[in-house]
Amino acid sequence: MITLNSISKYYETEAGVVSALVNINLSIGESEFISIMGQSGSGKSTLMNIIGCVDRPSKGQYLIDNIDVGTLSDSNRSRLRGKLFGFVFQSYNLLPRLSAIEQVELPLLYQQIDNRKERAIQALISMGLSDRIHHTPNQLSGGEQQRVAIARSLVVNPKIILADEPTGALDTKTGLEVMRIFNELVQKQGISVIIITHESNIAEQTNRIIRISDGKIIEDTDKIVKVKA
Amino acid sequence: MTILDGLQMAIRSILANRTRSSLTILGLLIGVSSVIALIAVGQGAQEGVKARISNLGTDLLFIRPVASSSGNVRGSANSGATIFAEDAEAIRNASIPGILHVAPQLNFNAQAIAGENNQQVSIIGTDHEFLPARDLIIESGSFISEKDVKNSALSMVLGSDIASSLFLEDDPIGENVRLSFGGGRISFNFRVTGVLQEIGGESQQDNYVFIPVTTLQSRIRALRNTSGNTIINQITLRSSPGINQDSVSTLVSDFLTAHHNKQEPDFTITSQTQLLEAASKVNAVLTLLLGSVAGISLCVGAIGVMNIMLVSVTERTREIGIRRAVGATSPDIALQFLLEAVTLSVCGGLIGIIVGIAGAELVNEKEILGEVMTTVIQPWSIILAFFVAVIVGIVSGIYPAYRAALLDPIVALRNE
Lengths: 229, 416
Ligand SMILES: Nc1ncnc2c1ncn2[C@@H]1O[C@H](COP(=O)(O)OP(=O)(O)OP(=O)(O)O)[C@@H](O)[C@H]1O
Ligand SMILES: [Mg+2]
Prior knowledge:
The complex is a heterodimer.
Chain A: E1 2-13, E2 16-28, E3 33-38, H1 44-51, E4 59-64, E5 67-68, H2 74-84, E6 85-89, H3 100-110, H4 116-126, H5 142-154, E7 160-164, H6 172-189, E8 192-196, H7 200-203, E9 208-213, E10 216-220, H8 221-228
Parallel strand pairs in A: 3-8, 3-9, 6-7, 7-8
Antiparallel strand pairs in A: 1-2, 1-4, 4-5, 9-10
Helix pairs in contact in A: 3-4, 3-5, 4-5
Chain B: H1 3-16, H2 18-55, E1 60-65, H3 85-94, E2 99-114, E3 117-126, H4 130-134, E4 138-141, H5 146-151, E5 155-158, H6 160-167, E6 176-181, E7 186-196, E8 208-212, H7 213-219, E9 234-239, H8 245-259, E10 267-271, H9 272-315, H10 317-325, H11 330-363, E11 366-368, E12 371-373, H12 379-406, H13 409-414
The structure holds adenosine-5'-triphosphate and magnesium ion (MG).
């Protein structure tokens, strides 16, 4: 479904050129549950942002369903991003002051999808938040906020959910609950979920682990499996 | 995103930051309301002056002397002033078509003593035609008569205010008033023959004392020049209603120039229409000036809106990042900030209209610094102020909105 061909990302800084990603080759299909691991500063978030069309590579080609993302205009990339990807962040990234239902309605609003209320409520119910619909972020626990964020990423029926350290701010039990939700999405809805994590017990619950060091992929269990097969 | 969704979002953000939004609105409110109120004050002054001028009637023409420009001076002691009491008589006898009444006017100050009361009064030396020329009405007794003029009679007519200040409750008709001129060197006893009806308004008209101009002319030597003529201040002409004052003015001018044996007029004729025009011009400048001051405060309000929107964009960088992540395009983001600016301006504009009207109504007919203030609210100033506020909102929202739209989603998202 998505293919990265020789993707590199450089940053020009006063101290010189920083290579965040070097020559990344990667393909991801449907129904995949992937974790990206690596040390801090190794380029995990950069890779995820490029996949989610939030960031743009300095070099290389990025194809989504055989469309070259590099050729799209800013607005078209925004629409593609809204349609295909759902984002979940370590710090939840909910908008302050908006209630849970309004948070979930937001992507629908930008994509001009009808029945916003019903869809948003449905997504919140599926996250077990039926009694938190009108709560604002500061009236919700961390785990609840993260579930609102997942509901928000889900509501547009994305192909891929990108989660940057989704369990990083949660306790073990809540973290596992979030992983259970992701697993269910992969199994039942055919969505691919890509998470970044530092915890190996979290990574172990995914089907494919990509390890990054200094902007390069040093291990991709998918290939190992394929090699073994 | 539809405009309606955007508007809803804008109102939410504005409500979320109440204090700041209120202060921004206040800035615009002051601008809009001062435009409305100050233009109302300027317009009120204009109408006031117009009313004062048209109080005299619009069919009047005034002949006044001009200071001779160098070259024409004939070396006479009074070379600067060039209309005489007998000019009024001459114009009257010339029967110029379109002229109904002609009245000379010599302004003079004197001390008036009536019994215990002693006060400085303004005197108008004139003749019997002053009453119809100025459209005055006699309250009691009679005005200066033709006979009084012929006989240089020591009779006087009082304005309503001066009558009550000299005689209080008493009936002044038939009473004596002593007028002393030139610091008491010359004085005469005058008999009051009439009192005028109150004119009212803000003019000093009710404070004048009227006596025959011939009385002054024949009894006070200092008022005569070498050829026995008396220089007067002005001649009032009443033209037939509706007649073209310009053509009447030309006829009179030609006649009087010839009468003076001059090539060029050595006097000016101003019609009431011209006075009105001149006064309107002065007041238009005043209104413009007040309007400009208000316009400046409107600009300051606009800068306030822009400032707040810029701060808002910076503060909400992360929010912009999140919105971009869930699919907002740059135009969506731009629209959101633009709508916020416009909503703020429309609020400021609407409340400003209410405050402006209330302010103008509040000072209307009130005495401020001894002057009765009249304000006339101009509908166009309301529309103007409101549209300027909205345009200002759009203009001052565009740059911040553009800044917000240009934000790279990744930079916005990484912003903590
Ligand atoms: N705007 C930027 N300018 C310069 N360097 C940058 C910029 N953004 C990221 N980098 C660098 O790129 C590298 C990769 O950053 P990235 O955020 O992808 O790391 P990460 O693997 O997600 O780290 P962490 O686990 O701490 O989140 C880092 O060395 C970082 O300093
Ligand atoms: Mg990271």
